[in-house]
Design brief:
The structure is a homotetramer. By secondary structure, the first copy, chain A, is an alpha+beta fold. Chain A is built from 7 helices and 13 strands.
């Protein structure tokens, strides 16, 4: 179990985004409200797009709640696109290369959930990764390997199709090894322009996922809220569990769904695993 | 809030002691059952007496639950006297020198609780430390400074009197600065032969503290329990909250009490702060 | 022994500043050219002034040369004023709170050298720190305590006089305890507008210190040099040992000297310890 | 470039072994005498056989020279068989799972050197690992993958033949990808009873390797030497570069050689890569 947040919109202070809300992502590292595992203290990561095309990546194995450098970075940096993740390891080593988000060129990827029976099918999945991408795999998690599978299935060309193919391949491989319900996931990925988020699980009982509702309405409703102030109307947050206490501010994303956020537009699409 | 455990008795595997019980100390680092703060993920420490007179000390800023080296050490080491502590910082930096137990020559010391208003009175407390001990203070916590105060008040000569004097000094200093109820503590200290544990707070509402009841009775009651097997009759555990599910195995130590464990003998004494 | 760098001028990429030169500060963490100790692998720190008045601070106990997060931060951040430091511990614990630069409000401070006999005189020095500043001391080094002494002697009012008074106090205290030549230092401090750097030692044989010569002349001489490109004429670097191979680019700062850099102006002044 | 040491013989204090000699392995982490890279500050590891059949493993990403826990562990532990390694990364991430020694069941493995062109041939090498061993690979180094190749080629049955087959496979695979001289290595492996060490490189210019000469002769020559005292006549050290200043104490192991140490016997055998 992990928790993550994907922000896009007008430049936001990372401190405002990750520390200030009542149920902020950093607070969720110690005590999250939803989910089986409430402590997400096995490392964290932040990816943010700054002045360069390639996003910055700050990942650490410390719990987010006590990491001084994370606090310092967040106080200084602001960004139009932020991916943040707090980790609860389901067995893989607690090391920087296993912290999300993962980066490939200008792309970021993060995952909440697990590939069941991963040790059993890891080799088969690894073999399906494009040989030229293979040496880029630096860690040992299911989540990173899933990213490289999606890249191998054409993520940079057609995100939804590539994720559908990667999930179908994981499910097929898993079932061949006798694993029921191999995939459990919410994932987010971005090229720096568009964010795609997915909620899916083989058993149809997926980790929670929410997106923020229209910011202007919220600003009118909560004129004193610091998180909302200064955000432009195209600002959007997709997140594992609601931040803050403005529960009306969040809409649950349904099972088997892909949400695509580009500028002020959010498109909700069905998601089904499909062979490549 | 922290959690700690003090073991003495026949040589015990650190793995059996710290990992195996149902509500083991390492498990309490993620989810403790008692206390306000249930996550104790701001570092940990183990002190154990081996073949040398000076105990070994393994302290780390990582959460105990995911520290691989702690697991390895515990698999290899066994000891007749073990102090173990998991930390939930109340504000001091998360750094090795702030992890308990603290060591001075052959002595160990660990603390659960806090000195209230510590930033306000820290300087006055530090001035009361013996000048030759002063440079040994390596961290920044109230707990370590409290240890050096007790040492300055004669801990190595008369433990109960020195702790009583140190507590009285902290309370007097705190009150002079307008701090109500300055002291909240359970502490344990040992010279390698005897363990002293204290439960006390200025407001008379102290952190929980338990000691194990007679091992032989327990072994008879629970013949299949792995933690109990192999322990000799002089084995004793003093601990912040019960390990395992054998609740009959534990007796609460009353408020304002000092318990002294030497060999098979456990002596329960009243504890009152007293000017030196 | 440590190494440090203080930059001020037109906004510079931290990556260009700290990684690109041939003998860059990050490279010096593994192999510095000058000085007794050539490995400075006991942590590092970067302080940089961004959009807020309070500078950001990124400090870690890892060797700078292999710290991935430092590399990432430097790739994203640029600043008009950067303090960077790599540490070779002379005995104090390797912990974040012992890494330079140290920060107090908007001020930064870093030090290369040592206070000799520090354990002997630490308590006397600590007592001279203003009581309201005392609880801000978080680490255990001579360098941080020296900073708080200078603050206590009025650093924020008159930098040169405060440092002179702090050095005089350290020397007087040291000599009273029979320590010859108590002070060895190059230090840099800034309020975000002006940088002051000092080179001094009690024995008149101080750690090396250099400042960059006129940038425009250098740019004319080395039109292809990446470090120089894009720097405006008021850009200045003060540094423990020359960066890059443009040795003409650097002037040694004499013994017992203070250099003050404000905008394009660099003023060289004598420095003598003086009682407050 | 790395440095390593393999000890077997009478129980030795890890502190005596790793800290006390003049050019001790821990000292070599900061300044080694031989080799291109003199700083080995990218982590370390110690494997030691204690009371259990499975050896203990203590690995950390910190430089060995400043790791407090290593010092503590070494002060407490003694062992009849110790593997110790200090790392200078040639590119792989600095993380615990990349630190040597690597462990599989009761076996340990450590490596100095590199597989050239590793990113290019990593996938082909990984495919040659037995599927049931594959998920045990936790890190990303050439050294660990080399271990799993050797295991796949039968290390636990016939060590010399399995290493010969693994090296031949790496060389063949490398050359197929146009890599000249793919293998550079000294390695050590043990099952807890026998230690095998190899010195080999494709170009016939291998990293240095030494073994200690007869302990009894040495003890007679250097009656006051602390490292030698208390060692029994079957004690042997194989090491990347001589410890201490007793240069007569060490014999260089020739190129293309395997040395096998079991009890007091050391057997020197030729080593040639050979197809499985």
């Amino acid at each position: 179990m992990c928790r993550w947040l994907a922000y896009s919109g007008s430049p936001v202070s990372l401190e405002e985004l990750l520390y200030k809300p009542a149920n902020s992502l950093v607070m969720q590292s110690k005590h999250s409200r939803l989910g089986v595992e409430t402590t997400n203290g096995d490392g964290f990561g932040v990816g943010w797009y700054g002045t360069r095309q390639t996003p910055g990546l700050f990942r650490s194995t410390e719990p987010a709640w006590h990491d001084v450098n994370l606090r310092e970075l967040c106080a200084q940096a602001s960004s139009e696109r932020v991916f943040a993740h707090i980790r609860a390891s389901t067995g893989s080593a607690v090391q920087q290369t296993n912290c999300h988000p993962f980066r490939h060129e200008d792309w970021l990827w993060m995952h909440n959930g697990a590939i069941r029976g991963f040790p059993t099918i890891k080799r088969d999945l690894a073999l399906a990764v494009e040989p030229e991408l293979y040496p880029e795999i630096l860690g040992s998690t299911d989540s990173e390997l899933f990213f490289y599978l999606a890249l191998s299935f054409g993520l940079t060309e057609d995100v939804r199709a590539a994720v559908a193919a990667a999930v179908e391949f994981v499910e097929r491989t898993g079932r061949r090894h006798g694993i029921e319900d191999p995939m459990q996931m919410t994932i987010a990925t971005t090229d720096g322009e568009t964010t795609w988020a997915f909620r899916y699980s083989s058993e149809g009982n997926s980790r929670s996922l929410f997106h923020s509702t229209d910011i202007e309405t919220l600003q009118a409703q909560y004129p004193d809220n610091d998180v909302l102030k200064g955000l432009s109307r195209e600002s959007r947050i997709v997140v594992s569990e609601p931040l803050g206490d403005l529960y009306g501010a969040w809409q649950e994303i349904p099972e088997s769904t892909c949400i695509l956020v580009r500028g002020a537009e959010a498109e909700i699409l069905p998601f089904t695993p499909t062979a490549a």
